[in-house]
Model the fold of this input.
Amino acid sequence: MQFLIQGDRGVWVEYLQLALTRAGHPTRIDGIFGERTCQALKDFTGNTDVCTVNREVWEKLNPYLTGYRMHTIEKGDTVFGLSRRYGTTEEAILTANPLIDPDDLVVDAILAVPLGFPLVPQMVKYTSVLTQWIIDGLVVRYPFLSAGVIGKSVMGKDIHSLWIGTGEKQVFYSASYHANESITTPVLLTFAEEYAAAYAAGGNIVFSSAVREEHSGQTGMGQEFVDARTLFDEYRLCMVPLVNPDGVDLVNGLLNSGIYYRRARQIADDYPAIPFPDGWKANIDGVDLNLQFPAGWEMAKQIKFSQGYDKPAPRDFVGEAPLTAPESVAGSVLYFHFHTRSQRSDKSSFYFYRPHTMRCIFLIHPLSHCRSAGFPPLQSPVPSYLPDSGQTLPPLFFSSAVSAANLRPSLKRT
Done:
């Protein structure tokens, strides 16, 4: 964890401000450790003498980043009383602890207590650290979710997966192949959170279906309410919310020193027209992960080499061969896991999931829309999707996202 003092700036300050705001000491989330943030921190810690954030302070803030506390049951505790104490609901506590008897709490047993706010934040930059906090919190809040690690990045960071559902039909969602398009990560995580919440409550997910009018030829949006538990029983969904953790950390300021940063800077120096780090799309080795899969790789190589991307670059370098970047290898291995266990569907209906708090996101299907190196093989038996970030130039954050044709962000379902 980063040691912070007043006057610091950056993504760690954003996380500090997010945690303080959730803890009941609101401050503007702008990444600037100024007077207001200092006062909020003093109010939180009760220490009016210093304005620093060390390991001890981060430990106190941690529940407001992961979204839960662990509580040791004492004599006289009740689920209702704990919900009032921690500002949450009885339902949230019971969902997180499915094995407890609410009428007979066992003294000294440990309960997970979800805190009373949505876990996936919008007004902060996403990094590998924040993504791990969120996945940790989601699995605690909703123990019917499961998490895993499908591989490692160049820098050795975990590439996390999140699973929901028990059905035979399997679907793969992934996000943030491009480092400066990390807005796709919270879109996917928001979907996971709202899906899990709907399943726990026995509620519905609202999907919007694209409908083309016969006379005008224009496409409109219709709505469908889908029972979350039906989806859970019919589908096994795997989500990889951050395929490119090193690159995203570079663009969003978590990686700003050290050998990998210096090497990325050297790569970028050969491409002065691409702003650094905002224009960085590749992994930390300068390989564009979206161009690493075997389908059409030779064609992509020919095109990108002719454009001058014939060596490691901030974007568009296809690599020396397909599946040479560890991040693409991890995604491919998981993809082939689905390939061997799924059956091709002759008919597919496409729906668009609309997280109600976001804008300017839509989803593309890489198998039908990608003109270069996509998932193998081109004719996929597995519904595999990745969110895209619309028409605005990246990097995009929720604070700068705009409406695209008055449509909210979308995730496809099959």
About this structure: The longest helix spans residues 184-201. Confidence is low (pLDDT under 50) at residues 336-382, 390-414. The longest strand covers residues 204-212. The chain is about 35% helix and 15% strand.
